[in-house]
Design brief:
By secondary structure, the protein is an alpha/beta fold. The protein folds into 2 domains: 2-114 and 257-295, no CATH class; 116-239, Aldehyde Dehydrogenase, Chain A, domain 2 (3-Layer(aba) Sandwich), CATH 3.40.309. Helix content is 25%, strand content 19%. It has a 7-stranded mixed sheet. The protein has a 5-stranded parallel sheet with strand order 10-7-6-11-12, sandwiched between helices. The longest helix is centred in the last third of the chain and has 12 residues, at 269-280. It is globular, with a radius of gyration of 19 Å.
């Protein structure tokens, strides 16, 4: 594993006139997904692809970190079918590489957010995700709950649930995914408490807490809340560093493991179109609403 420090020099200055001003639809969209889409400070410049109007804007940096999930990325690649005049590299979440068309592959790298420290015996677990079927499904809950099996529960004192529903926190009976979470957690004989992140953030001992994210990568792949908790010393359950990756620290406790030249498998255009339709049908917004967000209408 190679630890990169030169990224800090890349961010000595702020980009000038970077991207277009957010449209009303985009501002509303961000408000609906608060706090996950908030900006955070890091050595790698994060951005959302829906903000890009001209690929030349991206040439202000050598490397970018795309915070988007699968659906915004698919719209982006559909609008910019070829990376004409693009000189920079865009990192996307490792598990989203299959959405990248062949023409874009030389300009795409992969990344994962990882912990560099972990509590040998965590005292609490923080489980979170947007409480809407588009972002947290019963299936994604069941997959994420496997992380709990990796935690030694003998020393755990409490499990916290943060499951906001649009602009407000929900009670456990209002969504099927929340029901599944609570049912699974009750089997552990641990006390599970629904909380608001702002209430527990200042007072909780995060260095003895592990995080389980039950949110799918449909819309958001890199969220503000995760980085905020990791910066305070919390750790992820399953993400570990690999010797084959490069790494840049975001805080003393976590960072970004990335690969500028990931391995690729070919996908035919028809398969790609089916991929787009499949993911479009998985969200609670019409294609017109998504167009408004992506096109900045």
């Amino acid at each position: 594993m190679k630890v990169r420090t030169d990224w800090f020099q890349i961010l000595d200055h702020n980009p000038k006139n970077l991207f277009a001003t957010l449209s009303g639809a985009q501002q509303h969209f961000r408000a609906q997904l608060d706090p996950f889409l908030r900006d955070y400070i890091s050595p790698l410049q994060g951005f959302f692809v829906s903000s890009v109007r001209d690929l030349k804007e991206l040439n202000q940096r050598q490397v970018w970190l795309a915070r988007d999930g699968i659906l915004p990325l698919l719209f982006f690649f559909n609008q910019f079918k070829r990376p004409k005049n693009l000189k920079s590299k865009i990192l996307i979440r490792e598990d989203l590489l299959e959405c990248v068309p062949e023409a874009w592959q030389p300009h795409i790298g992969s990344y994962r957010i990882v912990s560099v420290t972990s509590s040998p015996q965590p005292k609490s677990v923080f489980v979170y995700g947007m409480n809407t079927e588009s972002l947290v499904s019963v299936k994604s809950c069941e997959v994420a709950m496997k992380d709990l099996d990796k935690i030694e529960i003998s020393g755990l004192e409490k499990i916290y649930l943060y499951l906001p529903s649009r602009r407000f926190s929900v009670k456990e009976s209002e969504h099927e995914a929340a029901k599944v979470l609570l049912t699974v957690l009750k089997k552990t004989s641990l006390q599970a408490e629904i909380v608001d992140w702002a209430e527990v953030l200042p007072t909780h001992d995060w260095k003895t807490c592990q995080i389980v994210n039950v949110q799918k990568n449909t819309v958001v792949a890199d969220d503000w809340l995760l980085h905020t908790l990791l910066t305070r010393g919390a750790s992820l359950v399953s993400e570990k560093m690999r010797n084959s990756e490069e790494f840049v620290y975001f805080s003393p406790f976590h960072g970004c493991a990335f690969n500028l030249k990931p391995s690729w498998k070919k996908t035919r255009p028809k398969e790609y179109d089916n991929y787009l339709r499949e993911h479009m049908s998985s969200v609670e917004m019409s294609s017109f609403e998504w167009f408004q967000i992506f096109a900045g209408k």
